[in-house]
Amino acid sequence: MFKETYNVIGVMSGTSLDGIDLAHVHFSIVDGKWSFDIYETETVSYDNDWLNKLQTAIDFSEDKLKELNKDYTFLLANSIKTFIKKHQLQKLDAVCSHGHTILHQPQNGFTLQIGNLPEIANHCNQTVVCDFRVQDILLGGQGAPLVPIGDRILFSEYDFCLNLGGFSNVSFEQNDTRIAFDISPVNTVLNFYANQLGLDYDDKGQLAASGKVNSELLNELNALEYYKKQFPKSLGFEFVKETILPLIEQYNIPIEDKLNTFTEHITFQIAVALPSKKGKLLATGGGAYNDFLIERLKFWLPELEIIIPDKKTIEFKEALIFALLGVLKLRNEINALSSVTGAKHDHSSGIIHNQFIL
Question: Which residue of 124, 143, 258, 270 pairs with 111 in a disulfide if CB–CB is 3.0 to 4.6 A?
Answer without folding.
Answer: 143
